[in-house]
Design a protein that fits this description.
There is one protein chain. By secondary structure, this protein is of the alpha+beta class. It folds into 2 domains: about 1-85; about 105-125 and about 165-325, 2-Layer Sandwich (BirA Bifunctional Protein, domain 2). The protein is built from 11 helices and 9 strands. The longest helix has about 40 residues, at about 45-85. The two termini are about 55 Å apart. Zinc ion binds near residues 258, 262, 263 and 266.
């Protein structure tokens, strides 16, 4: 027993310490076994041994915890020193990097549409109810308005839940034809593997006089865009519902991880949803006072595209500002 206490005292690191703890107090440890011998004893003998064993156990645990906390402090110090980044050091090795995957993906999307003469528009992050909801045909009872999803301020001001209000603001101040995209941060009350309270979207809007802006134009543009982002993938349009477009569609690409054969990431369907789109609803044009026009709109999550093109599976790692994550790109 004394040798064991001595061994514990001389342990050089947490692995050794843990091994000696198991030797003493593990399921088959020396002290544990001695305790089980108590069952076969009686009276004074039992009492004396129990007292002795409890004292040993206390001593053993006191040494164990003192050593353990000492090792933990030392290990933390070593880790901090090893991982410390000295920003004053001259960097002689140059790393080629794409930068942050979100900025990289956003820039690629903007590049594509700028080449097609789309105008780059921005709008406020704090929006009013009209621009974020009402003008987009999101009536009072729509679930997206739920307190669960939206961050509200006083006087029905809110953090925009999508970049669509920028489309409304652009239509209010310009006359057709319009070709615009609006990239930017958006906010919803959500946090798990695939949701963060702040995320980024890019939305696009095309409005033209008469019936010039058709679903066929939209389909051609998005197919070409998705080939530009993902290379040679299959693309399909699935009919869907959005309050601000009619007809509406969700667009899938063949899974980039299994080439459409089915895997865990595509839930064994072979397809990945990448964006939503549709022909702008008449109600939206009415809200901004447009007449005799046609238009289409599309929207996508930048994080989603970045995850698929850069092979990142936890959305949260984009926001942890850990250099080790960024260094991988
Ligand atoms: Zn797959």
């Amino acid at each position: 027993m004394n040798t064991l206490l001595q061994k514990l005292q001389d342990a050089q690191n947490s692995q050794e310490l843990e091994a000696f703890r198991i030797e003493g107090l593990g399921k088959k440890g020396i002290i544990t076994q001695k305790f089980s011998e108590l069952k076969s004893l009686e009276g004074e003998e039992k009492k004396n041994l129990a007292k002795e064993l409890n004292e040993i156990k206390q001593k053993f645990e006191a040494i164990y915890w003192a050593k353990k906390s000492q090792f933990q402090i030392n290990e933390l110090k070593t880790a901090l020193l090893e991982e410390k980044i000295d920003v004053s050091l001259f960097q002689s090795i140059s790393h080629r990097s794409i930068g942050h995957p979100i900025s990289y993906t956003k820039d690629r999307i903007i590049d594509y549409f700028m080449h097609l003469d789309y105008e780059l528009c921005v709008g406020p992050l704090v929006e009013d109810d009209f621009h974020n909801f009402s003008a987009l045909n999101l009536p009072d009872f729509h679930p997206a308005r739920d307190m669960q999803d939206t961050f509200y301020f006083k006087d029905s001001m809110l953090l925009r839940t999508h970049t669509s209000p920028v489309q409304i603001r652009t239509m209010e101040t310009q006359t057709p034809p319009i070709k615009m995209i609006c990239p930017g941060a958006t906010f919803r009350r959500d946090y798990d593997l695939t949701h963060t309270p702040m995320f980024h979207q890019v939305e696009g809007l095309v409005v033209d006089k008469g019936d010039k802006a058709s679903f066929a134009n939209l389909k051609y543009t998005l197919e070409d865009f998705l080939k530009y982002i993902f290379g040679n993938v299959k693309i399909r349009f699935r009919s869907s519902f959005f309050p601000f477009t009619e007809p509406s569609a969700e667009v899938d690409i063949s899974c980039v991880f299994c080439q459409g054969n089915g895997c865990r990431i595509c839930s064994h369907t072979g397809w990945l949803e990448v964006l939503g789109c549709g022909v702008v609803d008449e109600y939206v044009f009415e809200a901004v006072g447009y007449k005799n026009v046609s238009g289409y709109a599309f929207g996508m999550g930048i994080e989603r595209l970045a995850m698929l093109t850069c092979g990142v599976n936890d959305l949260r790692s984009f926001f942890e500002t850990d250099l080790r994550v960024l260094e991988q790109f």
